[in-house]
Amino acid sequence: MPANKKLLMLPGDGIGPEVMNQVRRVIDWMDKARHVSFDIDEDLVGGAAYDAHGTSLTDETLADAMGVDAVLLGAVGGPKWDNVERDKRPEAGLLALRKERELFANLRPATVFPALAEASSLKTELVAGLDMLIIRELTGGVYFGQPRGIEDIGGGEKRAIDTQVYTSSEIDRICRLAFDMARKRDNRVMSVEKANVMETGVLWREVATAAHADGYDDVELSHMYADNCAMQLVRAPKQFDVIVPDNLFGDILSDCAAMLTGSLGMLPSASLGAPDESGRRKAMYEPVHGTAPDIAGQDKANPLAMILSYAMCLRYSFDMEEGAEMVEAAAKTVLDNGLRTGDIMQPGMTLVSCQQMGEAVTVELDKLAG
Ligand code: IPM
Ligand code: MG
Protein backbone atom coordinates (compact mmCIF):
# COMPACT_ATOMS: atom_id res chain seq x y z
CA MET A 1 0.00 0.00 0.00
CA PRO A 2 1.39 3.39 -0.87
CA ALA A 3 1.96 5.75 2.03
CA ASN A 4 0.33 8.68 0.31
CA LYS A 5 -3.46 8.42 0.38
CA LYS A 6 -3.99 11.92 -0.84
CA LEU A 7 -6.33 12.79 -3.65
CA LEU A 8 -6.52 16.14 -5.34
CA MET A 9 -9.87 16.77 -7.01
CA LEU A 10 -9.99 19.27 -9.82
CA PRO A 11 -13.57 19.35 -11.13
CA GLY A 12 -12.89 22.03 -13.75
CA ASP A 13 -15.57 23.41 -16.04
CA GLY A 14 -18.91 22.57 -17.64
CA ILE A 15 -20.18 19.19 -16.49
CA GLY A 16 -16.88 18.57 -14.64
CA PRO A 17 -18.21 19.60 -11.20
CA GLU A 18 -21.44 17.60 -11.64
CA VAL A 19 -19.72 14.35 -12.52
CA MET A 20 -17.10 14.93 -9.81
CA ASN A 21 -19.90 15.21 -7.22
CA GLN A 22 -20.98 11.72 -8.14
CA VAL A 23 -17.45 10.39 -7.67
CA ARG A 24 -17.46 12.07 -4.30
CA ARG A 25 -20.53 10.01 -3.48
CA VAL A 26 -18.68 6.81 -4.39
CA ILE A 27 -15.62 7.87 -2.39
CA ASP A 28 -17.82 8.65 0.62
CA TRP A 29 -19.44 5.27 0.26
CA MET A 30 -16.04 3.54 0.28
CA ASP A 31 -15.04 5.59 3.27
CA LYS A 32 -18.18 4.60 5.21
CA ALA A 33 -17.87 0.97 4.17
CA ARG A 34 -14.29 1.22 5.45
CA HIS A 35 -12.78 0.13 2.18
CA VAL A 36 -10.46 3.10 2.03
CA SER A 37 -10.34 6.70 3.23
CA PHE A 38 -8.59 9.42 1.35
CA ASP A 39 -7.29 12.73 2.41
CA ILE A 40 -9.06 14.90 -0.18
CA ASP A 41 -8.27 18.40 -1.37
CA GLU A 42 -10.30 20.22 -3.96
CA ASP A 43 -9.20 23.09 -6.16
CA LEU A 44 -9.92 25.01 -9.34
CA VAL A 45 -8.51 24.31 -12.77
CA GLY A 46 -9.28 25.43 -16.31
CA GLY A 47 -11.76 28.19 -16.98
CA ALA A 48 -12.92 28.14 -13.36
CA ALA A 49 -9.36 28.92 -12.23
CA TYR A 50 -9.01 31.54 -14.94
CA ASP A 51 -12.14 33.33 -13.75
CA ALA A 52 -10.92 33.29 -10.15
CA HIS A 53 -7.18 33.87 -10.63
CA GLY A 54 -6.56 34.93 -14.23
CA THR A 55 -4.72 31.71 -15.03
CA SER A 56 -5.99 28.20 -15.69
CA LEU A 57 -3.57 26.57 -13.22
CA THR A 58 -2.05 28.52 -10.33
CA ASP A 59 1.44 27.72 -9.02
CA GLU A 60 -0.13 26.63 -5.73
CA THR A 61 -2.47 24.17 -7.40
CA LEU A 62 0.37 22.79 -9.50
CA ALA A 63 2.52 22.42 -6.36
CA ASP A 64 -0.33 20.54 -4.65
CA ALA A 65 -0.68 18.31 -7.69
CA MET A 66 3.07 17.57 -7.59
CA GLY A 67 2.72 16.43 -3.97
CA VAL A 68 -0.03 13.83 -4.45
CA ASP A 69 0.00 10.46 -6.13
CA ALA A 70 -3.39 10.88 -7.69
CA VAL A 71 -5.30 13.76 -9.21
CA LEU A 72 -8.92 13.34 -10.26
CA LEU A 73 -9.82 15.77 -13.01
CA GLY A 74 -13.29 16.50 -14.41
CA ALA A 75 -12.96 18.43 -17.66
CA VAL A 76 -11.77 21.85 -18.79
CA GLY A 77 -12.73 24.40 -21.42
CA GLY A 78 -15.77 25.95 -23.00
CA PRO A 79 -16.83 28.69 -25.42
CA LYS A 80 -16.66 31.28 -22.63
CA TRP A 81 -12.86 31.19 -22.77
CA ASP A 82 -12.46 30.93 -26.55
CA ASN A 83 -10.74 34.28 -26.78
CA VAL A 84 -8.37 33.91 -23.83
CA GLU A 85 -4.64 33.90 -24.75
CA ARG A 86 -3.24 30.44 -25.38
CA ASP A 87 -1.04 30.16 -22.30
CA LYS A 88 -3.94 31.04 -20.00
CA ARG A 89 -6.62 29.03 -21.74
CA PRO A 90 -8.38 26.25 -19.80
CA GLU A 91 -6.61 23.59 -21.90
CA ALA A 92 -3.20 25.05 -20.97
CA GLY A 93 -3.84 24.18 -17.32
CA LEU A 94 -4.60 20.59 -18.22
CA LEU A 95 -1.57 20.29 -20.49
CA ALA A 96 0.66 21.73 -17.76
CA LEU A 97 -0.64 19.17 -15.26
CA ARG A 98 0.27 16.41 -17.69
CA LYS A 99 3.63 17.85 -18.72
CA GLU A 100 4.93 19.10 -15.35
CA ARG A 101 4.05 15.82 -13.65
CA GLU A 102 5.55 13.89 -16.60
CA LEU A 103 2.44 11.80 -17.13
CA PHE A 104 3.65 10.38 -20.40
CA ALA A 105 1.26 7.46 -20.73
CA ASN A 106 -2.46 7.93 -21.16
CA LEU A 107 -4.44 4.71 -20.84
CA ARG A 108 -7.82 4.90 -22.53
CA PRO A 109 -9.67 1.59 -22.36
CA ALA A 110 -12.63 1.17 -24.70
CA THR A 111 -14.85 -1.58 -23.38
CA VAL A 112 -18.40 -2.15 -24.43
CA PHE A 113 -20.75 -2.90 -21.57
CA PRO A 114 -23.13 -5.66 -22.77
CA ALA A 115 -26.17 -3.51 -21.93
CA LEU A 116 -24.87 -0.73 -24.16
CA ALA A 117 -23.82 -2.67 -27.25
CA GLU A 118 -26.95 -1.44 -29.00
CA ALA A 119 -26.28 2.18 -28.12
CA SER A 120 -23.22 2.19 -30.37
CA SER A 121 -23.54 3.87 -33.72
CA LEU A 122 -21.97 0.73 -35.20
CA LYS A 123 -23.77 -2.56 -35.69
CA THR A 124 -24.08 -4.48 -32.43
CA GLU A 125 -22.12 -7.50 -33.68
CA LEU A 126 -19.16 -5.28 -34.55
CA VAL A 127 -18.83 -3.91 -31.01
CA ALA A 128 -20.35 -6.52 -28.65
CA GLY A 129 -17.55 -7.75 -26.40
CA LEU A 130 -15.13 -5.05 -27.52
CA ASP A 131 -12.26 -4.64 -25.07
CA MET A 132 -9.31 -2.61 -26.27
CA LEU A 133 -6.84 -0.24 -24.71
CA ILE A 134 -5.34 2.83 -26.32
CA ILE A 135 -2.06 3.86 -24.72
CA ARG A 136 -1.57 7.39 -25.96
CA GLU A 137 1.78 9.17 -25.59
CA LEU A 138 0.86 12.29 -23.60
CA THR A 139 3.80 14.61 -23.02
CA GLY A 140 5.44 14.88 -26.42
CA GLY A 141 4.71 15.44 -30.08
CA VAL A 142 2.97 18.37 -31.63
CA TYR A 143 1.22 19.32 -28.37
CA PHE A 144 4.51 20.59 -26.94
CA GLY A 145 6.97 20.81 -29.84
CA GLN A 146 8.89 24.03 -30.49
CA PRO A 147 8.94 26.22 -32.47
CA ARG A 148 5.30 27.05 -32.64
CA GLY A 149 3.32 30.19 -33.26
CA ILE A 150 1.60 32.36 -35.79
CA GLU A 151 3.66 35.03 -37.52
CA ASP A 152 3.01 37.81 -39.99
CA ILE A 153 4.96 37.25 -43.17
CA GLY A 154 3.91 40.44 -44.91
CA GLY A 155 1.47 41.21 -47.67
CA GLY A 156 -1.44 40.36 -45.42
CA GLU A 157 -0.18 36.80 -45.13
CA LYS A 158 0.36 34.90 -41.92
CA ARG A 159 2.14 31.63 -41.26
CA ALA A 160 1.31 29.16 -38.48
CA ILE A 161 3.84 26.64 -37.23
CA ASP A 162 3.45 23.57 -35.04
CA THR A 163 6.30 21.17 -34.51
CA GLN A 164 5.91 17.42 -34.28
CA VAL A 165 8.97 16.16 -32.41
CA TYR A 166 9.86 12.90 -30.63
CA THR A 167 13.08 11.59 -29.13
CA SER A 168 13.84 7.88 -29.18
CA SER A 169 13.62 7.63 -25.38
CA GLU A 170 10.13 9.14 -25.39
CA ILE A 171 9.01 6.53 -27.91
CA ASP A 172 10.86 3.72 -26.16
CA ARG A 173 9.21 4.25 -22.75
CA ILE A 174 5.65 4.42 -24.08
CA CYS A 175 6.17 1.32 -26.24
CA ARG A 176 7.63 -0.67 -23.35
CA LEU A 177 4.71 0.34 -21.16
CA ALA A 178 2.34 -0.80 -23.93
CA PHE A 179 4.12 -4.19 -24.11
CA ASP A 180 3.94 -4.57 -20.31
CA MET A 181 0.23 -3.75 -20.30
CA ALA A 182 -0.44 -6.08 -23.25
CA ARG A 183 1.01 -8.98 -21.26
CA LYS A 184 -1.87 -8.59 -18.79
CA ARG A 185 -4.36 -8.69 -21.67
CA ASP A 186 -4.35 -10.43 -25.04
CA ASN A 187 -0.64 -9.77 -25.55
CA ARG A 188 -0.99 -7.88 -28.84
CA VAL A 189 0.25 -4.36 -29.56
CA MET A 190 -0.50 -2.25 -32.62
CA SER A 191 2.01 0.57 -32.99
CA VAL A 192 0.44 3.44 -34.94
CA GLU A 193 2.16 6.25 -36.85
CA LYS A 194 2.51 7.64 -40.35
CA ALA A 195 5.96 6.42 -41.28
CA ASN A 196 4.92 6.84 -44.92
CA VAL A 197 4.98 10.63 -44.63
CA MET A 198 6.45 11.69 -41.27
CA GLU A 199 9.99 11.53 -39.89
CA THR A 200 8.60 11.03 -36.38
CA GLY A 201 6.68 8.10 -37.81
CA VAL A 202 9.86 6.54 -39.19
CA LEU A 203 11.58 6.88 -35.82
CA TRP A 204 8.46 5.65 -33.99
CA ARG A 205 8.41 2.42 -36.01
CA GLU A 206 12.16 1.91 -35.66
CA VAL A 207 12.17 2.42 -31.86
CA ALA A 208 9.01 0.34 -31.33
CA THR A 209 10.64 -2.50 -33.25
CA ALA A 210 13.91 -2.23 -31.28
CA ALA A 211 12.15 -2.05 -27.89
CA HIS A 212 10.13 -5.09 -28.86
CA ALA A 213 13.25 -7.05 -29.79
CA ASP A 214 14.75 -6.17 -26.42
CA GLY A 215 12.86 -8.56 -24.15
CA TYR A 216 9.33 -8.59 -25.49
CA ASP A 217 9.31 -11.27 -28.13
CA ASP A 218 6.43 -13.02 -26.34
CA VAL A 219 4.24 -9.98 -27.22
CA GLU A 220 2.84 -9.72 -30.74
CA LEU A 221 3.80 -6.38 -32.31
CA SER A 222 2.27 -5.04 -35.53
CA HIS A 223 2.39 -1.64 -37.21
CA MET A 224 -0.35 0.38 -38.85
CA TYR A 225 -0.63 3.81 -40.39
CA ALA A 226 -2.84 6.13 -38.34
CA ASP A 227 -5.35 6.76 -41.13
CA ASN A 228 -5.78 3.05 -41.70
CA CYS A 229 -6.16 2.58 -37.94
CA ALA A 230 -9.03 5.12 -37.86
CA MET A 231 -10.67 3.22 -40.70
CA GLN A 232 -10.13 -0.18 -39.03
CA LEU A 233 -11.58 1.13 -35.77
CA VAL A 234 -14.93 1.72 -37.41
CA ARG A 235 -14.69 -1.29 -39.73
CA ALA A 236 -13.61 -4.09 -37.37
CA PRO A 237 -12.67 -2.70 -33.94
CA LYS A 238 -12.40 -6.09 -32.25
CA GLN A 239 -9.18 -6.85 -34.14
CA PHE A 240 -7.31 -4.61 -31.66
CA ASP A 241 -5.96 -5.34 -28.20
CA VAL A 242 -3.50 -2.54 -27.31
CA ILE A 243 -2.92 0.43 -29.64
CA VAL A 244 0.06 2.71 -29.03
CA PRO A 245 -0.09 6.04 -30.91
CA ASP A 246 1.59 9.41 -30.45
CA ASN A 247 -0.12 12.30 -28.66
CA LEU A 248 -2.13 13.76 -31.55
CA PHE A 249 -3.09 10.50 -33.25
CA GLY A 250 -3.97 9.15 -29.80
CA ASP A 251 -6.25 12.11 -29.13
CA ILE A 252 -8.16 11.46 -32.33
CA LEU A 253 -8.21 7.66 -32.25
CA SER A 254 -9.37 7.60 -28.63
CA ASP A 255 -12.40 9.78 -29.36
CA CYS A 256 -13.22 7.42 -32.17
CA ALA A 257 -12.76 4.34 -29.97
CA ALA A 258 -14.82 5.98 -27.22
CA MET A 259 -17.78 6.42 -29.48
CA LEU A 260 -17.73 2.71 -30.37
CA THR A 261 -18.75 2.04 -26.78
CA GLY A 262 -22.01 3.93 -27.19
CA SER A 263 -21.06 7.30 -25.79
CA LEU A 264 -18.10 9.48 -24.92
CA GLY A 265 -19.76 9.59 -21.50
CA MET A 266 -18.62 6.04 -20.79
CA LEU A 267 -14.85 6.27 -21.24
CA PRO A 268 -12.41 6.68 -18.36
CA SER A 269 -8.69 7.35 -18.58
CA ALA A 270 -5.55 7.14 -16.50
CA SER A 271 -2.42 9.18 -17.14
CA LEU A 272 0.69 7.69 -15.60
CA GLY A 273 4.27 8.79 -15.07
CA ALA A 274 7.38 6.65 -14.66
CA PRO A 275 7.64 4.59 -11.46
CA ASP A 276 9.83 6.10 -8.71
CA GLU A 277 12.23 4.01 -6.55
CA SER A 278 9.32 2.58 -4.58
CA GLY A 279 7.46 1.67 -7.76
CA ARG A 280 4.84 4.41 -7.41
CA ARG A 281 3.78 6.45 -10.38
CA LYS A 282 2.36 9.93 -10.36
CA ALA A 283 -1.06 9.78 -11.93
CA MET A 284 -4.11 11.67 -13.04
CA TYR A 285 -7.53 10.21 -13.77
CA GLU A 286 -10.01 11.90 -16.04
CA PRO A 287 -12.92 11.00 -18.26
CA VAL A 288 -12.23 11.16 -22.00
CA HIS A 289 -15.30 13.35 -22.52
CA GLY A 290 -15.13 17.12 -22.43
CA THR A 291 -17.11 19.79 -20.61
CA ALA A 292 -20.34 19.45 -22.67
CA PRO A 293 -21.30 23.13 -22.21
CA ASP A 294 -24.69 22.50 -23.86
CA ILE A 295 -25.89 20.39 -20.93
CA ALA A 296 -23.73 21.83 -18.13
CA GLY A 297 -25.56 22.63 -14.90
CA GLN A 298 -28.66 20.69 -15.91
CA ASP A 299 -27.99 17.46 -14.02
CA LYS A 300 -28.07 15.54 -17.31
CA ALA A 301 -24.43 14.48 -17.65
CA ASN A 302 -23.35 10.85 -17.55
CA PRO A 303 -21.11 10.44 -14.47
CA LEU A 304 -20.00 6.90 -15.36
CA ALA A 305 -16.77 7.84 -17.19
CA MET A 306 -15.71 9.87 -14.14
CA ILE A 307 -16.72 7.09 -11.76
CA LEU A 308 -14.88 4.52 -13.89
CA SER A 309 -11.84 6.84 -13.88
CA TYR A 310 -11.94 6.62 -10.09
CA ALA A 311 -11.96 2.83 -10.42
CA MET A 312 -8.78 3.14 -12.50
CA CYS A 313 -7.36 5.31 -9.72
CA LEU A 314 -7.99 2.57 -7.16
CA ARG A 315 -6.33 0.05 -9.48
CA TYR A 316 -3.26 1.96 -10.66
CA SER A 317 -2.47 4.34 -7.81
CA PHE A 318 -3.57 2.38 -4.77
CA ASP A 319 -3.27 -1.22 -5.89
CA MET A 320 -6.89 -1.82 -4.89
CA GLU A 321 -7.94 -4.18 -7.67
CA GLU A 322 -10.88 -5.49 -5.64
CA GLY A 323 -12.25 -2.00 -5.00
CA ALA A 324 -11.80 -1.12 -8.67
CA GLU A 325 -13.68 -4.22 -9.77
CA MET A 326 -16.47 -3.48 -7.31
CA VAL A 327 -17.01 0.00 -8.73
CA GLU A 328 -16.91 -1.37 -12.27
CA ALA A 329 -19.37 -4.13 -11.39
CA ALA A 330 -21.74 -1.60 -9.79
CA ALA A 331 -21.65 0.54 -12.94
CA LYS A 332 -22.32 -2.50 -15.09
CA THR A 333 -25.29 -3.58 -12.96
CA VAL A 334 -26.83 -0.12 -13.05
CA LEU A 335 -26.74 -0.32 -16.84
CA ASP A 336 -28.05 -3.90 -16.82
CA ASN A 337 -30.96 -2.61 -14.73
CA GLY A 338 -31.87 -0.26 -17.57
CA LEU A 339 -30.85 3.09 -16.10
CA ARG A 340 -29.61 5.56 -18.71
CA THR A 341 -28.53 9.16 -18.82
CA GLY A 342 -29.57 11.07 -21.94
CA ASP A 343 -26.41 10.32 -23.93
CA ILE A 344 -27.02 6.55 -23.82
CA MET A 345 -30.83 6.61 -23.63
CA GLN A 346 -32.66 3.99 -25.64
CA PRO A 347 -36.29 2.99 -26.07
CA GLY A 348 -37.67 1.07 -23.10
CA MET A 349 -34.93 2.20 -20.72
CA THR A 350 -35.27 4.49 -17.70
CA LEU A 351 -33.94 8.02 -18.16
CA VAL A 352 -32.09 9.23 -15.07
CA SER A 353 -30.24 12.36 -14.04
CA CYS A 354 -26.54 12.62 -13.27
CA GLN A 355 -27.28 12.51 -9.54
CA GLN A 356 -29.66 9.57 -9.85
CA MET A 357 -27.04 7.65 -11.82
CA GLY A 358 -24.41 8.32 -9.13
CA GLU A 359 -26.81 7.32 -6.41
CA ALA A 360 -27.75 4.13 -8.25
CA VAL A 361 -24.07 3.16 -8.36
CA THR A 362 -23.80 3.46 -4.57
CA VAL A 363 -27.01 1.45 -4.12
CA GLU A 364 -25.41 -1.34 -6.15
CA LEU A 365 -22.22 -1.01 -4.14
CA ASP A 366 -24.34 -1.55 -1.01
CA LYS A 367 -25.72 -4.75 -2.50
CA LEU A 368 -22.28 -5.96 -3.58
CA ALA A 369 -20.92 -5.30 -0.11
CA GLY A 370 -23.92 -7.33 1.10
C1 IPM B 1 -8.26 15.02 -24.39
C2 IPM B 1 -8.67 16.41 -24.75
C3 IPM B 1 -7.47 17.35 -24.55
C4 IPM B 1 -6.39 16.91 -25.50
C5 IPM B 1 -7.79 18.85 -24.70
C6 IPM B 1 -8.90 19.29 -23.76
C7 IPM B 1 -6.57 19.70 -24.52
O1 IPM B 1 -9.16 16.45 -26.04
O2 IPM B 1 -7.84 14.79 -23.24
O3 IPM B 1 -8.38 14.14 -25.24
O4 IPM B 1 -6.37 17.31 -26.67
O5 IPM B 1 -5.53 16.15 -25.07
MG1 MG C 1 -9.38 14.54 -26.96
Strand proportion, as a percent range, falls in 15-25%
Secondary-structure-derived class: alpha/beta
Q: Note the run of SSEs as H and E.
A: EHEHHEHEHEEEHEHEHEHEEHHEEH
Quote the distance from N terminus to C terminus. Answer: 25 Å
C-alpha Rg, in Å?
Answer: 20 Å
Biggest sheet record: 10 strands, mixed
Q: Indicate the percent of residues in helices.
A: 40-55%
Task: Quote the average pLDDT.
Answer: 95
- Give the cofactors and ligands: 3-isopropylmalic acid, magnesium ion
Low-confidence stretches: none
The quaternary organization reads as: single chain
- Overall strand count: 14
Strand order of the largest sheet: 2-1-3-12-11-4-5-10-8-9
Cα shape: globular
Tally of individual helices: 12
Describe the structure in brief.
The protein has 370 residues and is of the alpha/beta class. Helices cover 41% and strands 18% of the residues.
What is the topology?
Layout: E1 6-12, H1 16-32, E2 39-42, H2 47-53, H3 59-67, E3 70-75, H4 90-100, E4 105-111, H5 124-127, E5 131-137, E6 149-154, E7 157-161, H6 168-183, E8 188-193, H7 199-213, E9 220-225, H8 226-235, E10 242-244, H9 247-260, E11 270-272, E12 283-285, H10 304-318, H11 321-336, E13 339-340, E14 350-351, H12 354-369
Parallel strand pairs: 1-2, 1-3, 3-12, 5-10, 8-9, 8-10, 13-14
Antiparallel strand pairs: 4-5, 4-11, 6-7, 11-12
Helix pairs in contact: 1-10, 1-12, 6-7, 8-9, 10-11, 11-12
The structure holds 3-isopropylmalic acid and magnesium ion.
